[in-house]
Amino acid sequence: MNKLNNHFDITNKQLSLYRFSIPFKKAINFKGQQLKTREGLWLVEQQSQGPDIIGEMSPLPGFSQETLAECEAQILTLLQQKNTLDFSDLLASVSFALFCLQQQIPWNNESINTTKLNNIPLLQGNLSEIIKRYQLLNSPKQVKLKVARVSAIEDIAIIQSLITINPDIRFRLDANQQWSLKQYTSFLTAIDGQYLNNIDYIEEPTASLTDNIALSEKFNVKIGLDESLLCNPILPTSPCIKAFIIKPTLIGDMARIKTLLKHAQQQQLEVSVSASFESPIALKQLHYLALQWQQEFQLPIHLGLDTLAAFDDPIATKNTHDTNLITHLLTQATCLWHS
């Protein structure tokens, strides 16, 4: 990648803006919002030679601080002005897209060696769906499991069933701040001394970082920070904090991301570069960025990018290297603007 530059000149670039909508296999609950499709924007820079450059804006409802409508309004205003852009004034999703264009982040580079990165599979759904997917994955030792969507009793039943299949399994539980303090306390009390040794860490148990740290220290359980990294400019330190879950498309600001990586390096924290149900285009770029950051910071980085299975065919069944898939997605999108 080139050196970070806070300014990006789009004066003489051939650009097109597309709006996309990709269906999920079934509706997914994002903090109380049921989404049947993933909506977003692609900004495409046409190249006379080689593949076009693409930047994606896909704020996630319930997680992003901006809406897709706000992104569309901002990027259209910027495109029509045709000026040099200042990254400090941009919404997070718009900043990420323009960064990908500025740095020419590849979305179709088959030479990216992702075997150097540890991809942690995502498990979500009901008990039978989770068991089926886990067995199809050949019972991996490490998994990320969504919790707090159902009762604690049901969550524990899923954990117990997976431990029965593989007693050595390690869980990264992701609650997305959906437990209350009482519910988190009840969950930890129920698994304490029985399944606690199988828990690697719990991502964002409640919406209160202070409560998460206090209760986790009491039960000697590790936590990971995800949403907290979006809203806390001062990075907390605690023996119970084990990992940073970095979502580049939601953070947007690359200087902030590098600050998080440097902090993780200094505190010897684990880092996971994680998806927010982006399109295959942005997922491929996240693979590339994770590899670059691992090399730059000499920091083992895990991948939390196992989200394509949530989409309807052909996305769920196609390889992200497939240029025909990307061409198909672009032809299905609606062109909103072109230079």
CATH superfamily of the largest domain: Enolase-like C-terminal domain
Query: What general outline do the C-alpha atoms trace?
Result: globular
Helix content: 25-40%
The CATH class of the largest domain is Alpha Beta
Q: Which architecture of the largest domain per CATH?
A: Alpha-Beta Barrel
Cα Rg: 20 Å
Structure classification: alpha/beta
SS element count, helices: 11
From the N-terminal CA to the C-terminal CA, the straight-line distance is 26 Å
Unreliable segments of 5+ consecutive residues: none
Q: Into which percentage range does the β-strand content fall?
A: 15-25%
Q: Element order, helices and strands?
A: EEEEHEHEEHEHEHEHEHEHHEHEHE
For the biggest β-sheet, the strand order reads 6-14-13-12-11-10-9-8-7
Number of domains: 2
How many distinct beta strands? 15
The fold-level CATH name of the largest domain is TIM Barrel
Q: Tell me about the biggest sheet?
A: 9 strands, parallel
Feature tags:
single chain, 339 residues, alpha/beta, Enolase-like, domain 1, TIM Barrel, 2 domains, nine-stranded parallel beta sheet, four-stranded antiparallel beta sheet
